[in-house]
Amino acid sequence: MNFSSIVALVHYNGDIITDELMSSVFVSEVNKYFEVNNCMSLSVLKQTILNLFIVSDGKSYTVDLCYRCPVTTNKLKTYGSVAIEDDNDVQCVITYAKQYEILIQFEIMTFICEYNEVASDVIWELLERELDESLNIE
């Protein structure tokens, strides 16, 4: 694999809006540019993006990523949003974005939130209690 990098516009905790042509548009109040490369693992990419927006405060965060990619249907060019979920996705996204970098800007939407560790048993107990209460079961 050849080393390849590209500058990405990263949107922080914004919205993905679908316009009248069913095309995805990324909107956020805060965004930054940074260089991403196809040798990054998903965890390195997430940590790099987290460092762009969050000051190190000792807390844990979850980071979800998606990118905006061109989709051509019936000679109409629109954009879709696709999740970045593993290391292979990172490599594919960068390779794909490099093919279109002259035509479109590479954009990533990141959703960052503080991680609250809750045991799965506790979650199931809460859901079961809510269900019981809604069905009036004691």
Task: Give an overview in words.
- With 138 residues, the protein is α+β, with helices and mostly antiparallel strands.
- The protein has a single domain, classed as Phosphatidylinositol 3-kinase Catalytic Subunit, Chain A, domain 1 (Ubiquitin-like (UB roll)).
- It has three helices and seven strands; from the N terminus they run ββββαββαβα.
- The strands form two sheets. It has a five-stranded mixed beta sheet with strand order 4-1-7-5-6. Strands 2-3 form a two-stranded antiparallel sheet.
- Strand 5 (61-73) and strand 6 form a beta hairpin.
- The radius of gyration is 19 Å and the shape is globular.
- The termini are far apart.
In brief:
This protein is α+β, with helices and mostly antiparallel strands. The chain has helices spanning 42-53, 87-100, 120-134; strands at residues 5-12, 15-18, 24-27, 30-37, 61-73, 76-84, 106-114.
Largest sheet: 5 strands, mixed
- Mean pLDDT, rounded to whole units? 84
Major sheet: arrangement of strands: 4-1-7-5-6
CATH superfamily: Phosphatidylinositol 3-kinase Catalytic Subunit, Chain A, domain 1
The percent range for helix content is 25-40%
Poorly predicted sequence stretches spanning 5 or more consecutive residues: none
User: How many domains would you count in the coordinates?
Assistant: 1
What is the count of DSSP helices, taking H or I runs of 4+ residues? 3
How large, in whole angstroms, is the Cα Rg?
19 Å
Assembly level: single chain
Distance between the termini: 60 Å
Number of strands: 7
What is the CATH topology descriptor?
Answer: Ubiquitin-like (UB roll)
